[in-house]
Design a protein that fits this description.
2 copies of one chain form a homodimer. With 334 residues, chain A is of the alpha/beta class. Chain A folds into 2 domains: 134 residues, NAD(P)-binding Rossmann-like Domain (Rossmann fold), CATH 3.40.50; 185 residues, Dihydrodipicolinate Reductase, domain 2, CATH 3.30.360. Helix content of chain A is 28%, strand content 23%. In chain A, the strands form 3 sheets. Chain A has a 6-stranded parallel beta sheet, with helices on both faces. In chain A, a hairpin with a 6-residue loop joins strand 13 and strand 14. The termini of chain A are close together. The mean pLDDT of chain A is 97. Chains A and B meet through strand 9, helix 4, strand 10, strand 11 and strand 13 of A and strand 9, helix 4, strand 10, strand 11 and strand 13 of B.
Chain lengths: 334, 334
């Protein structure tokens, strides 16, 4: 097996650090791992395979001899450095949303559309976290009968906002415990003991950028150009794992038992659906692992062809780091 | 104004205590207030209008000369004592779910169906908390055009489970802070930093009793016998105020501006919908008051006649205590 030179751009953030962990766990065939970040993080040491790697400064010259760049930086940085990465001949697997809807950039969930990845021009985008988790949960259903419409309400963990999210939640809880006042920096309002129905920025149609991703990205990943998605995204005061309550309408009427059976054998997800034993997906169960848990599967009460379910997955891993590395694995020996 | 003799059954619980507070706040015309609870709470002192009232034992003989009994006890107690209340000639306004679907028991939200209350045979039921909050939010829309279907995802506070709910949440957070293990008693699983998609008990159709209440009770309160409601109820780690993400389908197509205008002048709710200034309903905003906040109002992306919105309200107050006392107010001078 050919060993690859891999760089992680934004290596000191929540997703970057998780990428390092996942590369090690999955024994990704690495010749050299280069950790890149902005100037202020240069010199930070991070363990990889029992070795201390030192973070280097991200510059246009960072990509010489690199085969794969895993991007865990914001859109602005992704847009700035993508041309240098492509010019250096590396494949850029980018977790930002900067290129996701570009026509010549594949948007890939390896369990769903792996072959799209090969049709790239140097950049492959990693989809939005809630979108990945939802689509892995419903991919088996789409194989039984084409999904026409989805209603989604999310319950998104603070770590979806980066490492500062859970830090702010815990700090606020401690401050409240001590009778101190609370400061909101990462989030628009206090998140401790609160919910915020606002993730991303608001568009003219009243939806947020985050809410529209599930329709826009879902259409592209599932090759369903007419898919309709109505989404409400809500930040909840938990540390990790996003949950999504989904109701979908399929072209044909499906039997619940067939849906459960299909999900139970689908790659990337676990059927966890035994309510009588209090078994249903919950964020505590699904944190720090790579599978999407699917449960509460039942017939929608509004539509003959509708199905409701509840799914949870670790959005830092399957929703970001792991999915990116699964994409990279498609290029091992290719 | 005739002053009434009022008894509160279950006076020491979360809803019972809130009823005492709300009676005082609203200057309900009280001649005598009797606080009733089970044996183990007898002797507890609770302040009402600067006076210490002593909790008495609930017995079949507790209702002599009482005009109105406010029930804040579980179903079992409500079922046991209702015959004695009715026999004593009092009106029983019951917050339990025991009688809600009985044909000869009105189920009342005073902003929606006040006159139903007069058609009682001694018992009037107070609806489910999430149902009250959702229906107050959408009542104005139903007046513009009949609501045919609702998709609801709830974000329900721990206080919905009674006083032990928030206590368990805070105790678990403190235990985790100190590196201790966590015990789940009130909830089926750890609620700190977690979500639990399970409120009530599971029915054969895969929905919970709590989830079916919104359809069953919604039909009765709104006089919409064919209303379809698909609901997912989720417990979230917050102290107070339930939130509900709603998508509804109306008979005719409505304009968003008309919907906002109608909600802004509707009794019992507040239009709080200015996302560009980060204004949308949140549980922190809506706790410890009686109005339902409605925001994030936008066109549903799945249905021409659909509208999505997000609403929050204090379920201990408007979802329980205040609604019951508003029902009682219908009988002042009647």
């Amino acid at each position: 097996m050919k060993k690859l030179n891999v760089a992680i751009m934004g290596a000191t953030g929540a997703v970057g650090r998780e990428m390092i962990k996942v590369l090690e766990e999955r024994s990704f065939p690495i010749n050299k791992l280069v950790l890149l970040a902005s100037k202020r993080s240069v010199g930070t040491k991070i363990k990889f395979n029992n070795e201390d790697l030192v973070v280097e400064e991200l510059t246009p010259d960072s990509f010489k001899e690199i085969d794969i760049v895993l991007g865990a930086s914001p859109n602005k940085i992704a847009l700035e450095f993508a041309p240098y990465i492509v010019k250096a001949g590396a494949i850029f697997i980018d977790n930002s949303s900067a290129f996701r809807m570009n026509e010549d950039v594949p948007l890939v969930v390896p369990e769903i559309n792996p072959t799209d990845a090969y049709n790239n021009k140097g950049i492959i985008s990693n989809p939005n976290c809630s979108t990945i988790i939802s689509l892995v949960a419903i991919n088996a259903i789409n194989k039984l009968s084409k999904i026409k419409a989805i209603n989604a309400c999310t319950y998104q963990a603070t770590s979806g906002a980066g490492a500062s999210g859970p830090k702010e939640l815990v700090e606020q809880i401690n401050a409240l415990n001590e009778g101190k006042s609370v400061e909101a920096k990462t989030f628009t309002h206090q998140i401790a003991y609160n919910l915020i129905p606002h993730i991303g920025s608001f568009l003219d149609n009243g939806y947020t950028t985050e809410e529209m991703k599930m329709q826009n990205e879902g259409r592209k990943i599932m090759h369903l150009p007419e898919l309709l998605v109505n989404c409400t995204c809500v930040r909840v005061p938990i540390i990790r794992s996003h949950s999504i309550s989904l109701t979908l309408v399929t072209e044909n009427k499906l039997q619940i038992e067939d849906v459960k059976k299909a999900i139970s054998v689908e790659k990337g997800c676990v059927l966890y659906d035994d309510p009588s034993s209090n078994k249903y997906p919950m964020p505590l169960l699904t944190s720090d692992q790579d599978l999407v848990y699917v449960g509460r599967i039942r017939k929608d009460l509004l539509n003959e062809n509708g199905i409701s379910l509840f799914c949870c997955g670790d959005q830092v891993r399957k929703g970001a780091a792991t999915n990116a590395i699964q994409i990279a694995e498609l290029f091992v020996n290719n």
